[in-house]
Amino acid sequence: MLTRLSSWADNFAKTLLFILLSVVLILVFFQVILRYIFGQSIVWSEEVSRYAFVWATFIGASLASRQGLHVAVGILVDHVPTVTKKYLSITANFLVLIFVCVATVVTAQATMRAFTQQTAVLQIPMAVPYAGMCLGCVLMVIQQLAIVRRAFKGEIVTWETTMDGAPLPKE
User: Fold this and answer.
1) Can you say whether the dihedral through the CA atoms of 48, 53, 58, 60 is positive or negative?
2) What is the pLDDT of residues 38-72, one digit of tens each?
3) Residues 93 and 147 sit within 8 Å (Cβ to Cβ)
4) What are phi and psi of 28, to 5 degrees?
5) In angstroms, rounded to a whole number, what is the distance separating the alpha carbons of residues 4 and 143?
6) Among the listed residues 78, 103, 97, the one whose alpha carbon sits nearest the alpha carbon of residue 143
7) Residues 149, 159, 99, CA angle at the centre, nearest 5°?
8) What angle do CA 4, 170, 161 make, to 5 degrees?
9) pLDDT digits (tens, 9 = 90+) for 59-107
10) What pTM did the predictor assign?
11) Distances 15 to 5, 7, 20, 36 between C-alpha atoms, Å
């Protein structure tokens, strides 16, 4: 079930990321055309594209999490036996899970507090832009749970393997 949830979260993130980046691209393109050719501008386009880009950043982070693309230092892991790599993988991925869970709680609290503030141009609650951070963290929790589960099952999940990749060869 966790694997299916992880796949669903991955597909959801890809679709949402495509939509968000398309919105940014279209708005910025039309803003440039309107400003430099017609001398006009869309007042709200900069704000919408900025917030869509913030959403895209956190949604994209969940995709990077699933694919093992986040920054990691592997110098220690490169010089230990496979058995030790397994325990290091479990520990590292569990710590990342804890961090992402804490980030989810903190971003959810920030989102709830932001309902009283409004954006400058659109006059919508600041909770809307903040919700992208929270959603991205929730998606990362789902991905990280699947990664930790794979690590506990004996598959080494580090920066050298991905959710979709094969485990490292045995020494």
Assistant:
1) positive
2) 999 999 999 999 999 999 999 999 999 888 787 77
3) yes
4) -65, -40
5) 11
6) 97
7) 60
8) 40
9) 999 999 888 787 777 777 778 887 888 888 889 899 999 999 999 999 9
10) 0.86
11) 15, 12, 9, 32
